[in-house]
Amino acid sequence: MLGTVSRHVAALRPGVSRGFSTGPALGYQARLSQYYHNTLRDDLMILQYVPPQVRARQEVMEEARLKAIKENVGGTPPNPLRKRLKVRPPKPRVAESAAHNTPYVDKVTVHIRCREALQNKHNLLSALMTLQVVTGQRAEVIKAKNDAAPWKLRKGMPIGAKVELTGDRMYEFLDKLVEVVLPRMKEYSGLPMDSGDGMGSFTLGFDNSAIGLFPEMEMVYDMFPMVFGFAVNIKTTAGHNPAGRLLLSGLNMPFVHARKPTTESFML
Amino acid sequence: MFTRTAALRRAQRVAVRGFSTSSVAYESSVRAGVLLQRDPIVTQPAGKFEEATDRYFDWLQFISADRFPRDFFFKKGSTAESKWMDQEDIRAGEWFFDATSKPVVKSVKRVIHEDDMIEKSETSKPIVINSRETEADATGNEQSLERKLDRTLYLVVKGAQGEWTLPQGKVNDEELLHEAARRNLKEMCGGKMSVWMVGNGPVGHSKSGEASTFYIKGHILAGQAKANEELASEFKWITREEVEKTVSAEYWLAVKDMLSTI
């Protein structure tokens, strides 16, 4: 079952035998990684380019907008009784489009929240193994940071599992997710256009039916006593949502408009 | 960034008409071209160094990995378990440091040979990997899109004067640069191509005499070019190195920074 492919490769190509390899033969670089570096990155740079004149004009307008906010021209006067506890830090300026600051996928975190672990810690084992099978990397246990009395949760109790992926493993995982798992899901149309955390990072949540769609899980699915839903957090260096969307849609991630189709909105 | 609404464009056209001083056709010194590429289809081949490094790190990972939870995945005494144990013995037999310090592996039960393995298991047939070289590579057909699968190919055409360039042409009055680029590509290489243009802004330019040509990048998604006899006698899909050999030295200096080395 596991490693049958590498065994044949070992038998076929004695010079490059990989008998010890438990995962798929990576070769030199993951497919999606090569695609990003050789093809997509160039396009992202071109699409995000703003001519210097336009950029200068945008900056003047932005300064005027900030000044107007500061002086509160025409707006409601600030409430003197209300004090802002937290002053939100200003958003960093969007970097100029150049080869060195083209957005890339920095890190992908996959996590499972396992509420069943409160009853029995051993339930967490399924979650840990699931993540290991799907991502090819050892999962960490997440422990509760705070008490939560309604759930009978105390600080320090194991409550979930997570994996942080970078580099080739990350690209392999994204590749599987986008090319195999999402197309197999029956009712998944894509990420909504207004998703994202404002800094170009995106989170996708899946219920427990999606985990069986991973090709590695197919073979061992019956052996898991419990299956869980999972969340995928994709951290990019885009800095703002539109650039992050551009990057992810370049990697084939589907996006849909949240707006209803016109036919439905006219129906009574 | 370069998008313009239809209303704005209409307004511009009206403005151009309104302010033009004469009705004589104005010969623009600006020309529009297309840098049309076919993306690599297969991954880059690993060099000997990469292969060795990859293999070594894979092995390091294997020996430092946590134990595989056999009890979790296999039923005790099952065929799958014994198969896995055979596999594990082969893996444990590999040693990448110097041969003198190789530990004696005691758990090897039997050595599996290639022949009896293939005979016994019908379900797991050996994987035959397709060749990276295609028929187009063998015959040297430079018009085929199926040549050099791991490289980026660029479309070049032979102009009326017999010189090889990227597809290009005039910009008409009241026409935007990206519209002109698309039209020129269609006129020169036929409409039987599905093309995605990357934005509306140029990625580079070349000069010949008075005229400057601005190039807009595009990707071919489907179809094939078909040279228009009047404008272009021939076309080729070639890599960066081949472009250097095909075009003139002056033209190469202008376009070389737009072309991918992979």
TrEMBL record, chain A:
Organism phylogeny: Eukaryota, Fungi, Fungi incertae sedis, Zoopagomycota, Kickxellomycotina
Q: Which family does it belong to?
A: Belongs to the universal ribosomal protein uL5 family.
GO CC terms: ribonucleoprotein complex; ribosome
Which Pfam families does this UniProt record tie to the protein?
Ribosomal_L5, Ribosomal_L5_C
State the protein's name: Large ribosomal subunit protein uL5m
Query: What UniProt keywords are attached to this protein's entry?
Result: Ribonucleoprotein, Ribosomal protein
UniProt lists compositionally biased (Basic residues) regions at 81-91
Large ribosomal subunit protein uL5 C-terminal domain ranges (all copies): 158-255
**Chain ranges of the Large ribosomal subunit protein uL5 N-terminal domain:** 100-154
Where are the stretches annotated Disordered? 71-96
Share an example GO biological-process annotation for this protein.
translation
The family database entries (SUPFAM superfamilies) matched by this protein are listed as: RL5-like
GO MF annotations in UniProt: structural constituent of ribosome
From TrEMBL, chain B:
For this UniProt record, the keywords arranged alphabetically read as follows:
Mitochondrion, Ribonucleoprotein, Ribosomal protein, Transit peptide
Q: Which family does it belong to?
A: Belongs to the mitochondrion-specific ribosomal protein mL46 family.
Pfam families xrefs: MRP-L46
Recorded hits in PANTHER family, A to Z, give:
39S RIBOSOMAL PROTEIN L46, MITOCHONDRIAL PRECURSOR-RELATED, LARGE RIBOSOMAL SUBUNIT PROTEIN ML46
Q: Does the keyword Ribosomal protein apply?
A: yes
Q: Which InterPro entries match?
A: NUDIX_hydrolase-like_dom_sf (IPR015797), Ribosomal_mL46 (IPR040008), Ribosomal_mL46_N (IPR021757), Ribosomal_mL46_NUDIX (IPR033650)
GO molecular function annotation:
structural constituent of ribosome
The protein's matches in Gene3D superfamilies, at most eight in alphabetical order, are given as: Nucleoside Triphosphate Pyrophosphohydrolase
Q: Which residues form the Large ribosomal subunit protein mL46 N-terminal domain?
A: 29-137
Localization in the cell: Mitochondrion
- Entry's Gene Ontology cellular component terms: mitochondrial large ribosomal subunit
Q: What is this protein called?
A: Large ribosomal subunit protein mL46
